[in-house]
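Hi there,

I know you've been waiting on this one. I reran it after we fixed the sequence typo, so this is the corrected version. Both the input and the resulting structure follow.
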Amino acid sequence: MGYCENCDKEVSSRFCPSCGKEVQSVASTKDEIRSTIDELYALRAGLSLLSSETDEITQADADYNRAVNNYNSKLNNYQKRLDDDYKKYSEDFENAKKKNKKNYEDLTKGIADYKYSRSHAIFHSIILFLLVAIVIACVVAVIYFNNPNNPGVTPQASSIAFGVSINLFIISIIAGGFVISFLKEHIQWLKGAQRVINNLSNCGCVPPEEFDDLYNSLPSTIKFTNEYNNLIATRDALVNKGLSAEFYDRNTRISIHSKQGEEIYNSLVANYSYLLDERDWQNLDLIIYMYETGRADTIKEALHHVDKARQTEQIVQMVSSATQVICGTISRSFQTLENTMIKCASILSAQLSDINSTQNKILRDVSATRDVLFKALKAKSNVSSEQLAYDVQVLKSYLN
């Protein structure tokens, strides 16, 4: 049995009857084909285990990035609270300061108005007192000079005294009316100024230069200052703590799993490169699919079918079908694959170096390695070989 690459078909003779070229001999026995399939599944199991190590590495990075995001979020929240609290405190302080200044100015004006009204009220009261005295004097003078019994009072003097007294009386009465009106007005002003003084005095306003000390001594301000300082201390404690523990945990986990992954990778390259080049690991599912469905009997033939599928844009559908077939095979055929896993486990166990790693200590035991491979193969059964090959590249990026 042979295979003509030129005509893309199997032939039974040494030379192709269509083109005459010598054909490539292929494995024709079922045992040889089964052995190849087993080795391909063993390679897939190793890649699945390698992918699990990559998952651990990327998870370590993801956990650290999550810790960084949480840290930054907390730090930003603390800073925002500090900024908001300080902004509110500043606004309250400025508003209170402006209000105190206005109240103090109004109080000062009220006191000045009070003094002004009081002085004018006293002045007009004195004027009123004098006018009343004049009126009384005028009345007395009229009575005196109109008394015929008073010696020395001539009719002429009585007439003059009467005229003067009447005129003064009239003038004093008129002036007294104006004085009383002014006095009433100033008394009203005095009462208004007194109310302003009483109201503003109850507000506790102080001279502007004394306001800062007064405001800082208020219980509400002292409470705010204590809470604000506690918040600063909490933020500073978070900053001082930092992410050193999380960073150390990340690096430790990455170091462990990258070392384990490197050991597994080196083992796979050393023992399966003869079967399938690393550059073709992404096609592993398709190659197994070609074998399982009888479309190919050799690796080269299977790769030829893969290249042809890529050229005809059938690769997407074929990859999906291959993944489904392999997933079903792994789920149904653990007993069939047991010998394959034992063989692969022996290879891995022999290749792994003696390093201080729990995972690799397990892998140095053949029986335990078989169980680990079974578990990895099943866990990654629905993951395509393209993804497994990509995980290999991710792992290698951490080794550089």
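Quick highlight: The mean pLDDT is 75.

Best,
R. S.
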